[in-house]
Design a protein that fits this description.
Residues 65-170, 171-280 form the PRD domain. The chain is of the alpha+beta class. Helices cover 62% and strands 8% of the residues. Helix 2 packs across helix 3, helix 2 (68-85) runs antiparallel to helix 5 and helix 4 (119-125) packs across helix 6 (151-163). The longest helix is centred in the middle third of the chain and has 22 residues, at 170-191.
């Protein structure tokens, strides 16, 4: 691959024989190189296909501020999480996660508190991401000798989940987490139950809630409602309907969000499943 632009000793913009541009990252990969030189493929540790100029510049800027070892740790965490979660992440995660880990380590060494107010919710609602984040803490400790507080696993889990959502903003992910927590609380108190968080019905319910909250925050609506199905489910599951009505009133008052008839229908079905299991 031919070098088209050098950002620093560890990052360069290259072009292959098919004229495909990519940013490559590797320890000393561009050291004493110049435009037009060939890259040693054995030194490439990460490639970013068809990158934007903004992304390449941001990566270069970040690598001038953050030790290369932290970038490698972040890459390994992302690769490990991608394998565990059977997913792919947005390239932007390499920037945000490395930046986050580096400054968290610095804060911890300076004796500043590392906390996350959403740790409890993240452990409940994003179990797979949280487990991957716990493994990330072990990897960080193994590589750096720094053991970060357990709350940091929640922060990393949010970064992982956020990167699975087509680049949605972290603020949006945190709002979505709050909505899921608030809605489950309404359901729990309406039926006077405690959820079996290991049950399949609860897992399906939470998955439905997460994507429901995601669509609501994005104002994504499907107004082609099935009125007859809504009426049928409302009659069949009257308690689930009453609970759904409470949720609708809360969302309208707190977030100015309105559920469609289809959303209410599927919410009733999930609420009935999860509440019926716990009641029985």
């Amino acid at each position: 691959m031919e070098i088209k632009k050098i950002f620093n000793n560890n990052v360069a913009l290259t072009e292959d024989l098919q004229h495909t541009e990519m940013v490559v990252m590797g320890k000393g990969i561009a050291f004493q190189k110049k435009k037009g030189d060939q890259i040693d493929a054995n030194k490439i540790e990460k490639t970013f296909m068809a990158p934007s100029v903004h992304f390449a510049n941001k990566l270069s800027e970040l690598m001038n501020e953050i030790p290369y070892e932290i970038m490698v740790i972040s890459k390994d965490i992302i690769d490990m999480a991608a394998s565990d979660l059977h997913t792919e992440f947005n390239d932007s995660l390499y920037l945000s996660l490395a930046d986050h880990i580096y400054f968290t380590i610095r804060r911890s060494k300076d004796g500043l508190p590392v906390t996350n107010a959403l740790t409890w919710e993240v452990k409940k609602f994003y179990k797979e991401e949280y487990q991957a984040a716990c493994k990330a803490l072990n990897l960080i400790e193994k590589r750096t000798g720094d053991r970060l507080p357990s709350d940091e696993a929640a922060s990393i889990a949010l970064h992982l989940f956020n990167a699975r959502q087509d680049g949605s903003k972290m603020e949006e992910t945190m709002r979505m987490t709050n909505i899921v927590n608030e809605v489950t609380t309404i359901v729990k108190y309406h039926f006077g139950i405690e959820f079996d968080e290991d049950s399949m019905n609860y897992s399906r319910f939470i998955t439905h809630l997460r994507y429901f909250a995601y669509r609501m925050l994005r104002r994504e609506r499907n107004d082609d409602d099935n009125e007859s199905l809504f009426k049928q489910v409302r009659i069949q599951y009257p308690e689930a309907y009453e609970c759904t009505r409470k949720v609708q009133e809360y969302l309208s008052r707190q977030y100015q969000m309105e559920m469609t008839k289809d959303e209410m229908t599927y919410f009733m079905i999930h609420v009935h499943r999860v509440s019926n299991r716990e009641t029985n």
